[in-house]
Amino acid sequence: MKKINGIFVMRSIAAFVICSFPFLASAEIVVLKASTIITMDEKNPRAEAIAFDTETKKITAVGSLNDVRASAPNVAIKDLGTTVLMPGFIDPHNHPILSGISTQAPAYWIAPYVGYKTWADVQAKILKSDKEAAPGVPLVFNGVDRLLQQAPIPTRDILDKLSPSGRPILVIDNSGHAVYFNSATVKFLGWKGGKPPANPVGGSYGRNPDGTSNGVANEAAALMAVAGPILPKAVPHMLQSSAEWYALMANNGITATSEHTYNSGQYKAYLALASVPDSPLRMHVYHMAIDADAGDKVTWPDPSMVRKNGIKLWADGSPWLGNVAQSFPYLENQRTKDAEIIIGPLGEKGMNYTRLQLDQLLDKYAPMGYQMAFHCNGDVGFDVVLDAYEYALAKYKLMGTDHRWRVEHLGAARADQFKRAESLGVTVSLAPFQYIYWGDLLDGTMFKPEIGAQWQRVNDAFKANIHTSFHNDGSVSPPDTLRNIQHMVTRTTDAGTVHGADQAVTMDQALKASTINGAYQLKRDNDIGSLEVGKYADLVELSADITAVNPNEILDKVKVQGTWLGGKKIDTAKFIEEISAIDPSEHQGLADATLKTVHSH
Q1: Which of 159-168, 273-282, 545-554, 586-595 has the lowest mean pLDDT?
Q2: What single string gives the DSSP state of each residue in 186-207?
Q3: Closest Cα to residue 94, out of 228, 284, 320?
Q4: If we measure between CA atoms, which residue out of 352, 337, 280 comes closest to residue 150?
Q5: What structural domains and CATH numbers belong to the chain?
Q6: Selection from 253, 280, 245 nearest residue 542 by Cα
Q7: pLDDT at position 594, please?
Q8: Treating both helix axes as pointing N-terminal to C-terminal, what angle do 238-251 and 267-275 enclose, rounded to 10 degrees?
Q9: Residue 204 pairs with which residues in a beta bridge?
Q10: C-beta atoms surrounding 381 within 10 Å
Q11: Over the chain, what is the mean pLDDT?
């Protein structure tokens, strides 16, 4: 017997014989006892103890203490006391590299839900940071939200007043569709006469009447041109910033996630993040369809840690900017006017692709066997996506197969659309954060109550039996799974208000959306998402039984105490140290690679 990471283990021939792992020459078994274990396995929903093998990283027994003890009779039991164990949470739609670079120090996260409720708060933060930072160092701020913070468009003139030191300043819109900058940035970029270059394809620059920059760049191509030269100066160790977001996700109980705007420039970074001993997340990438090499086969040394799942496409834009393919208009009022929302409705004019273009993209990628994943918010957009999916699935004889094509976000989706998705074998990942943070504006300020109160119809999605999951879509919202669960069960916004009470879900549904359903969408339900023999020992430790507390008090009474990945207790501080030791010069290309992804939300 010896001690590993504070837990007594021993090589036990009986353990692997009983647990049917004949391929092991020897097995090091760890046994944990908890106050209760929520397995998310319908055949065995609760347990007292769990055993796993530190070599295979997989569960060897889960059940009563006596049964688990019998499977490993000579192994000391680690009693976790009042701790509750669950499968690690799964966030099937995120953007870890972009999120880390744009929100973690030395960048500044100025979103309303991290403490900057008003435009006055944002202004004060920019002024303070400009005063305190080392002279000449560019500063990056992310998360200004014109609707929630009632902010004006932060043009060059406005930002010049907030940066008296004369350093370059970048302010990224929380939607990810725009970046704002000051005169020092224009000078740094070397734009002759202060005039931006010609608009790139798919992007644009804001211009004053005399043709000079007004300090605004819209969409990915223009964002890259502005922010690409600035980011390496402002964020010198981009890989470490990415690791900070990994750690934030792990500290919120997440053990598996995705990169939903992958490009080949991120390959080395995801390889490095997965390669260190304390890497806390299993990663699944979806390559942007707009890249010429999106269909290329990509592998990593350990596909259990990083793998390529599919192709990412965009149907429409962001509800916070008004460029959404929906059948209903925004309400005209001072709030939507100040945010310069397009009242609409845009209908199919809000689509990023024509139906012909969608068919061409699916014709290209469907025969390759990839899983498709569509960003979509509007109801019109969802109809078009389902039409395109149905056509391609039939054309390539995929109807009725286990393809698991996905659609993401779907704030304005209708109940009948979820039923149609089920008939096609399409699964959806919904975005509780849209309701949690914007719900009080959605209902009656942005849209009529019959639309706004029903935003994020999570109950309708569950009724359709389409393996509904919840995601956070960093950096648009924090990776806070417990918050998603509390607010989708109670149907409350962050302010505690209820809108569309009929769309509340049960605790069991919310837990499935945060574990096994996310695993299903990542095509990993065979080895993660529930605690079963043969699956990876990916665990989250909770301070209390989430099913036994008042749902309105989850955030107060249930705390994440740690995670295990493949039977290893994760030390997130050590993980960050491991990544920070990597030479940052190896990953300077992350600036351009990351900026290709900022139009994704």
Answers
A1: 586-595
A2: HHHHT-GGG---PPPTT-EEEE
A3: 284
A4: 337
A5: 2-82 (2.30.40), 108-234 (3.10.310.70), 238-591 (3.20.20.140)
A6: 253
A7: 65
A8: 50
A9: 218
A10: 32
A11: 92
Cβ(215)–Cβ(156) under 8 Å?
yes
Q: How many CB atoms lie within 10 A of CB 401?
A: 10
In the predicted structure, residue 588 carries a pLDDT above the cut 80:
no
What type of residue is 62? Answer: V
Report which residue type is found at 309: N
Is there a contact between 338 and 150 (Cβ–Cβ < 8 Å)? yes
pLDDT surpassing 90 at residue 321: no
Cα separation, 326 vs 293, whole angstroms: 31
- Residue 154 clears pLDDT 50, i.e. is over it: yes
Is 6 in a helix, a strand, or coil? Answer: coil
Coil, helix or strand at residue 344: coil
Distance in angstroms (rounded) separating the CA atoms of residues 121 and 112 = 9
Name the token pair of 379.
Answer: 């109801």
Task: For residue 176, name the pLDDT band (cuts at 50, 70, 90).
Answer: confident
Q: What is the 3-state secondary structure (H, E, C) of 287-342?
A: EECCCCCCCCCCCCCCCCCEEEEEEEEECCCCCCCCCCCCCCCCCCCHHHHHCCCC
Which pLDDT score is estimated for 376?
Answer: 96
Give me 7's structure tokens.
């837990």
Angle, vertex CA 391, rays to CA 388 and CA 393, nearest 5: 105
CA neighbor of 455 nearest in space, from 441, 475, 467: 441
Chain centroid to Cα 509, Å, comes to 19
Confidence (pLDDT) at 91: 98
**What three-state secondary structure class fits 438?**
helix
**How does DSSP classify residue 208?**
-
The number of angstroms, rounded, from the C-alpha of 425 to the middle of its chain's C-alpha atoms is 23
